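Follow-up to my earlier ticket, as requested here are the two runs.
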Amino acid sequence: MTLNEQIRHFYDTSTNLWLNTWGEHMHHGYYGPDGKTKKNNQQAQADLISELLKWGEVGQPQTILDAGCGVGGSARVLSRLYDAQILGLTLSPVQAAAAKHYNKMDGLDSKIQVQVKDMLAIDANYGPFDLVWSMESAEHIPDKMRLLEMFHSVLRPGGKFLMATWCIRNEPPFLSQSEKAILDKIEKWYHIPPMISIEKYRELATNLGFSSIKTEDWTVAVSPFWKAVMRSAISVKSFAGLLKAGKPAIRGAWAMQYMTKGYRMGTLKFGVIQGTKA
């Protein structure tokens, strides 16, 4: 299978399990700047959206591209906040169907359009957008420069991209063999091409002509999330769901240990990046 086919299959088989266990937000939670704030895990996921918007200072966007929308959790938050028109893209037909169902239930089906489409297959004709939102999807894209080029092409002048994504630590010093071994497992089981550092994203965005580029490392704030997911995975309900979901979901659950180890080693990073089109 191609990488896109692997990603599609992974989310087609695991999405319903996630929805039944965690709900509509298919991303990390935010547990305060020091990662020590005690809160409901679903609240932590909602807080990641609000904290990213606060950090991004996005104004009042009226047109938004949700690049990698999952089941539309972020899109519905953004639509309600800004009364915006949103296009969400996902590779997974299962996710798209769930997103459309939730959008209709929330009365947002006229505000949010969802397409099953590779985000790299769109161009300037899909825009212009005031905001490109990318919540934990960029890690699945092999060509990060091409991804940022797409962001640039669909944004209006003065529009902004706002991204949260999995990264590796800055180099040098160069990754050790033990670090590479952990990353190999994460990339294999979550169908992720080689990741880049937060600073590499800054460099690429700069080379493309984005202005007002900001980056931060939020690893500490989100790292408690995977321990919570691991605890939920061993519940009777979730374990039965894992067996039903099949091998991709089971392998994903197994790989959680490598996520926690990657964060603990300082090899894996959770980066937030923003830039404005001049």
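Run two:
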Amino acid sequence: MNLPSLDSANVRGKRVFLRCDFDAPIVDGQIQDDSRLVASISIIEYLLEQGATVIAAGHLGRPEKFDEKLSLFPIAKWFAQEFGTEAKQTHVEGLSGWKLKENLFILENLRFDPGEEANDSNFAHKLAYGVDIYINEAFASSHRLHASIVALPQLLPHYAGFHFQKEVKVLSSLVDSPKRPLSVIVGGAKIETKLPLISKMHRFADYVLVGGELAENDKELASVAHQKLIDKKSVLLVADLTTDKKDITKHSIQNFTQIVNNSATVVWNGPMGEFEKHFDLGTREIAEAISSSSAYSVVGGGDTVSFLSKEGLLSKFSFVSTGGGAMLQFLSGESLPGILALQS
């Protein structure tokens, strides 16, 4: 997949709008998992070394207006600590944010302005004011038709970030030439977005394993949809839930583990149960099975990555995607608006 490479861009002395994945879990002002933030460090360092001024931006949660609980101040403080400085409140070309260095700024939550989610061209022009170059390093948000993802790159010379390019390269290889058997494990919530994508997974995966909330609410629907597929190549296995409906059963864990152990490639998105409420047996057992297997393993989705990080298992996976819905959408064969915007 051809994406405009940052390697070919002259950024010295330029003002760069860097769209990042800042949507990290925060509880009482404390960041619970910084995986997405860490993914942005290398490109920020590169741009600063090249003499660029970096205006980094992203979103947190789904606010409809200003909400102090969803301010990016904790994110700005995290980056300030990483760069050995302080986050000082300021305005960047009329936009609220923080100054970390003379040439490094972080903007406030883009979704505080309704123009972001509306993909409003006026808001995009606001973001583009005084900027020379646009870079998308926010793969996890690139399935969204939002102003900073779609409208903004139409106004500026645009490039894909380093991690963005790696995401596309790794996920493309899973679609085009995976080592088989290839198993896709999907769990968690967000049923309305995941179920249609699961149906499309059947055309390139050998096994599709479904757990979590999906298993309870859509077991029959998923099975019927699978049976109707004419050109399917996968085996579908939907987990049974425990009597309290909070986790998958031990029998289902054993079935999933057996398939994982026989797989050459495993893709995982979504926990098997309500691990945040301590119903974590299924998620933990599947995590340990994948991390100890010889399979090439790819994991994505904020909840899943956060769990693995806390359990100290994240480094045992071959590739960690910053994307949840974006990863599934890409693997299902659907076009991502953020990728199309970079290619135009």
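The only thing I checked on run two: The mean pLDDT is 91. Let me know what else you need.
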